[in-house]
Amino acid sequence: MIGKRPEWLAGDAQGIARAATLLRAGELVAIPTETVYGLAARADSAEAVAAIYRAKGRPAFNPLIVHVPSLEAARSLARFCSRAERLAQEFWPGPLTLVLPLREDAKITPAVLAGLSTVALRSPTHPVAAALLERVGLPLAAPSANRSGAVSPTRAEHVARSLGAAPAAIVDGGPCGRGMESTIVAVRADGTWQMLRPGPITESQLRPLLGPPAPLVHAEIEAPGQLARHYSPGKDVRLNAQAPRSDEFMIGFGAIAGDSSLSAAGDLSEAAARLYACLHEAAASDRPRIAIAPVPEEDLGIAINDRLRRAAAG
């Protein structure tokens, strides 16, 4: 695909059929989900998965999330305890990724796992992604469709700007509704659980089902989004700003206005959905630095601030 522009596919039956054909052939296809756009490849092909890592410039120790159409399909790849079953029944399809022990007979290339004995699984609710997974008949590895460490894409045009000709096709499903990567939860063999990445499914939603989480010790990278520096717009980012400096693009929230706003109403759901769109706008502006208004450290604000701190790191 070097030197060629990706095919631009509509999120209709024809576009989904074409995307499925390309994926079965081992090509990369950018697809919409309810969280962010993913760069998909068949998860049983070492060559296809290696192409994901090359296209993103992603470090080989960072594992990939595997997308499946249903809980039944997920059971063929991982071992589900009763707690994992409960989570899947409650939140799938949706923006929750489960990290579970890999089945010995799972048809997954080791390249997806980054040397781990666990696999990260998700069943997306976006109608295009769901229809594509049913049509292709294969589990799909699909990290965010952008260069590694950069701002995640929530529109098809974000994918094109970040990855250029790397994907064979981009399926345009419109803006992503959630606008933030999935929550990642590891369910351990000893009955404990840990949140590896905060996201749209909050700890307050998980505690009634699982109880309190075990402390998280970052001994190794077990899931996407755990790198200290991530989601970078390529400019210095100043957090908790009350007003911009002369050389800063201001991203507001609530009563603090800006050049753009996560949510003028102070709504955390809207802020999560608009987070990456605002960072893309700030990155494209002619000002060399970015300032971002404070976001409450509660509910979805925990996930938003997690992304912002990583964007500002370094």
Strand percent estimate: 15-25%
Order of helices and strands: EHEEHEHHEEHEHEEEHEEEHEH
Class by helix and strand content? alpha/beta
Give the low-pLDDT segments.
none
The number of helices is 9
CATH class call of the largest domain: Alpha Beta
Roughly how many Å is the radius of gyration?
A: 19 Å
Helix content: 25-40%
Largest sheet properties: 10 strands, mixed
- Amino-to-carboxy terminus distance: 34 Å
CATH topology of the largest domain: DHBP synthase
Number of strands: 14
* Count of individual domains: 2
Rounded mean pLDDT is 94
Q: What would you give as the CATH superfamily of the largest domain?
A: DHBP synthase
Overall body shape: globular
Assigned CATH architecture of the largest domain: Alpha-Beta Complex
Please give the order of strands in the largest beta sheet.
Answer: 1-8-2-3-7-4-6-5-9-10
Strand-helix topology:
Layout: E1 7-10, H1 13-24, E2 29-31, E3 38-42, H2 46-56, E4 65-67, H3 71-75, H4 82-91, E5 96-101, E6 118-122, H5 127-136, E7 140-141, H6 156-163, E8 169-172, E9 183-187, E10 193-197, H7 203-210, E11 236-238, E12 248-252, E13 260-261, H8 268-284, E14 289-292, H9 300-312
Parallel strand pairs: 1-8, 2-8, 4-6, 5-9, 11-14, 12-13, 12-14
Antiparallel strand pairs: 2-3, 3-7, 4-7, 5-6, 9-10
